[in-house]
Amino acid sequence: MELTLNEKRLLVALGPMGSADAAVLAEKMDTRREAVVQYANLAGDRGLVDVEKHVARRYVPTEEGRAYMGKGLPERQVLESFEESIPMRDLQGHPLAKIAIGWMRKKGWIVIRDGVVKKTGKTSPGPDEAAFARLAESGEIADGEGVADLAKRGLVEEEETVAYTVSITPRGRELLAGGLDLREEVGTLTREQILSGEWKSLPLRRYDVTKLPKRAYPGKVHPYQRIIDEMRRILFDMGFEEMSGGIVQSSFWNFDALFQPQDHPAREMQDTFFLGERRPLPKGYERVRDMHEHGSGTSSTGWGGTWSAEKAEQCVLRTHTTSLSIQHLAAHPKPPVRAFCIGRVYRREAIDPTHLAEFEQLEGIVMDEDVNLRHLLGFLKEFYAKMGFEKVRFRPGYFPYTEPSVEPEVYVDGLGWVELGGSGIFRQEVTEPFGIEHPVLAWGLGISRVAMLRLGLRDLRQLYRSDVEWIRETPIYGGRR
Amino acid sequence: MAIITLPYRYLERLARTDRQTIIDRVPMIGADIERIEEDHVDVEFFPNRPDLYSPEGVARAMRGFLGLEEGLPAYTVRPSGITFSVDPALADIRPFLGSAVIRNVNLDEEAIESLMALQESLHWAVGRGRGKVAIGVHDLDTVNPPFRYIASPRDRSFVPLDFEREMTMDEMLADHPKGRDYAHLVEDFPKFPLIVDADDRVLSFPPIINGELTRVTAATKNILLDCTGTDRRAVMTAVNIICTAFIEAGATVETVTVDGEEMPMLAPAERVVSVAECSSLLGLPLTAEEMSRLLRRMRFDAEPDGDSRVRILVPCYRSDILHDWDIFEDVAIAYGIENFDAALPATSTVAQEHPIPAIEGAVRSVMTGLGYLEVIPFTLTNERVLYVNMQREPAPGTLRLLHPINEEQTVVRTDLLPLLMEMLLANKHRELPQRLFTVGDVVEDCVTSQMAAAVSIYPTADFSEAYAAADVLCRELSLSYTVAESADPAFLDGRRGDIVVDGKIVGVFGEIHPAVLGAFDLEHPVAALALDLRAVPGYPVLPDTP
């Protein structure tokens, strides 16, 4: 049996007394009572001492109670302030009269007749006064006759005290009799102790394996970023090239190049963050203008009306990463293109648990000879399956720049079918002005929603107003939900 | 978004099927079920299909989709003899007018409500908030033709809908609820659009409000429709959708002659499309016959034109058909999106990481290795956080939002450090020490670039810790740098250093100034660093182009 030094010291202190209060032992051992209780419990587990816990209730005076101490209860003080009788009016001048008169009557000490207060003669002290007298002597009293009355009057209050009595057991005595090594225990081994071999004879402090030391917190990547990185890895695995680009876009790249009509509601200041800045239109913007106005030689009628270059120059905070996709395609019009982007997008929305003015969007595009709607569904199925959503289904959808458009839904246990992003084939009105001759499959996904599902969040804001505690407690490897 | 209320009993009668079939199948023509109630279902239809914004329109589409009735719905019109003139002075105000007479309407309370709802949805989807198109319906029997659409002096008065007294049009813009809502559409014009009858009585002040005189009630038997606007195509779309919905409900439509043009003709448009193009886009090997059959279920008339083409008549209410691919989408919907076999193309491509996320990833490795925790603050913030609290001058290229939502988010961040300081405040009650970092976009002068920043807060956080961390970050990013005394007012003098690369300051580190700590309501020293990642070798030269 390997005792800690503290347990040994406890046995040595306890030996001569056999049994003692923890507070007494603390004084003898020059430590705190709580420490003694801790050592005693350890030794108790080994059967060397018995620890007995006593819970005692006692009553101590309240502030009001303290005010009467030594002087007696108010009714006694007032009673003694006059002889056999006194006019009520005079008695009311006593500072304690208000409290005392009621009690004097209740206890039957006085009668009041015709405005005169007269003693009855039955004024001997009751149990409450006796208890109060004992309180005045020692500053505290145990429960007993009359104490409840004092408590009810708010003159005393209950206080709980816990005392521990530690007694040595025969096994403890035996051990003590055999002699104990009271040399100071060694905590951290020094270089000298290791090299010299002194460690062999040193009493090493033993640690309690049930006691966790102060917690350590590792540096960590944000849980949301881990999900983003997982998605990036999936897209790399599927042969996609990564895109990255500016937050600020001209309306031309954010809307016009995507055949969004200039009077589309999304282009109003209620929905989009506009900036005062303007950007020049790229070379060849006229082809986009013509497409809007009359369809530019395709089977499209265009939107009609007059297209405004001035409107197209106005800068916005990108409302989707599709503005990057179309620029990437304009720079790489020859097949095959397989590219993706994960980036922050902006919507002018009032902030609440499920809506934010900024959030991340994932977007994938595939351009190749002869890709078709079935391939779009194929890429979506593959991507969602790798994300852990095995069940995927498709419904018709609508997005201004795709035709056909498809809404994918994934099955989530407990939630049912959840709409998770949008997809489609870029309209010819979008691709034709940039010399893109093959279909472009595209899909986008608000990944903060995926993060909410994965991380079990109810409020999107938690992703961005990071609570350090939450990041510390969210495991790096959580497996799949 | 347009959410349409579909009462089961009415819809079942019109669609000739039961409610469960409708609820089950309507999403497959392109819709989201919003709410299923005892006596009705609320469905959201897409903004490109305003023809579905009424129970009549939905029933028409569902009869086709379910195979109960195929091909083009036949709509006949006959002349009413009523004429309408348009004042040339409206050319710069609100030039276009569409009109029709609708007879034998049968309006109960529910039907009036449904008509109002259709009108509101069309105002939103086609009318762009009444600017492009505004719709008015009138009890025809309260007024006398011919009608005139004129540019009127602004002080002309009449009794507007829901009011009992006459007021001038200027007063309506100030005092009538609809006037206040839509004043911005007309207030700058010297004259206002007005519709009057043969006796100069007012029917409507488009796009603001109708007159009380022609109010449509349950007793109304005949309706005069007016659609005014700034875009002829959109005006006619609204007329066609409303008229065909009334015909579906059992009414008859008569034409009106507007400046010599008879309208509405409700005539289909012809298109000839390629079978091969459709098959290739959808990945379905279709014949002209199969394609025609599918399109008839979407209420087109469609007949093979030889083997390789299909001749199509597009109903007048289908304003969404701009391009042949819009037709092909309907082929896909008729075939059933759920019936397509998913496939992957055989082409192989090579993945490629973009250098910017790659550099950001390297920052994450270094900082987490040093025990820092990543946080992801918002990119929208305000000048108090960015500059005032930091004791710094505003960056000249700061982007300000023209219409911010709140006072907290008015500018795009130009630095990350202030956001980390704010994050420390939000986590003030959490255990110390805290070491936080972030990496991400900042914007100046419309150009997006990336930074990394880190903070460390606890009673003995100091200059040396910041210096050591800055040194590790630079070394691990292969960045050769020198250090010079810094003048950054966010840091304490004598405890701050600039990271200098090629003679240019690209970062800063040190102990945050106690006044800055105070501004962020922090109570312990903060060691901090920030680094402009454009200095890192391999950072792309033109970062703002994808």
From TrEMBL, chain A:
Cofactor: binding details: Binds 2 magnesium ions per tetramer.
Signal peptide boundaries: none
Say yes or no: keyword Lyase present: no
Q: Which Pfam families match?
A: tRNA-synt_2d (PF01409)
This protein's name:
Phenylalanine--tRNA ligase alpha subunit
Q: Per the annotation, which location comes first and is thus the protein's main one? A: cytoplasm
Originating species:
Methanoculleus methanifontis
> Which domain of life does this protein belong to?
Archaea
Automatic annotation (TrEMBL), chain B:
Query: How is the quaternary structure described?
Result: Tetramer of two alpha and two beta subunits.
Q: What PROSITE patterns does the database record attribute to this sequence?
A: B5 (PS51483)
Gene encoding this polypeptide? pheT
> What does the record give as EC number?
6.1.1.20
Question: Origin organism of this chain?
Answer: Methanoculleus methanifontis
The chemistry this enzyme catalyses reads: tRNA(Phe) + L-phenylalanine + ATP = L-phenylalanyl-tRNA(Phe) + AMP + diphosphate + H(+)
What's the name of the protein?
Phenylalanine--tRNA ligase beta subunit
**Which cofactors are named for this entry?**
Mg(2+)
* Alphabetized PANTHER family for the sequence: PHENYLALANINE--TRNA LIGASE BETA SUBUNIT, PHENYLALANYL-TRNA SYNTHETASE BETA CHAIN AND LEUCINE-RICH REPEAT-CONTAINING PROTEIN 47
